[in-house]
Design goal:
It is a single chain. The chain has helices spanning 20-23, 44-58; strands at 3-8, 16-17, 38-41, 62-70, 74-75, 80-83, 85-93. By secondary structure, the chain is of the alpha+beta class. The protein has one domain: Rifampin ADP-ribosyltransferase domain (ADP-ribosylation fold), CATH 3.20.170.40. A hairpin with a 4-residue loop joins β5 and β6 (80-83). The radius of gyration is 12 Å and the shape is globular. The protein starts with a strand and ends in a 6-residue tail after the last strand.
Length: 99
């Protein structure tokens, strides 16, 4: 299974994705739960959509990261997962062609 995380090229992302409790960055400012995990999805369509939302909030271009979970992988909804952190294995810039 391939897992994705959405972000933008204006946010610095290294080889590891860390949760908001460690980075202080979260797309949903109202979120009070799940601040200690990273969200991943197995849906490229959902990843593209969330990358566009991240770009609207933070600026920059939408980017989808291909990731490997580190630690447990918990399915929260149909295509949505959480993990304590994740290793970035590839980056995909979202363009009109990749939509």
């Amino acid at each position: 299974m391939v897992l994705y995380h959405s972000t933008t090229d204006s946010l610095r992302v290294g080889n590891l994705l860390l949760p908001p409790v460690s980075t202080g960055v979260k797309r949903e400012h109202w979120r009070t739960k799940y601040e200690d995990v990273v969200f991943l999805t197995d849906s490229m369509r959902a990843a593209r959509m969330y990358a566009k939302k991240a770009a609207a909030k933070y600026g920059g271009n939408p980017v989808v990261l291909v990731c490997e979970p580190i630690g447990f992988l918990f399915c929260t909804k149909n295509a949505e997962y959480t993990t304590p952190k994740a290793k970035v294995t590839d980056r995909i810039r979202v363009t009109e062609k990749t939509m």
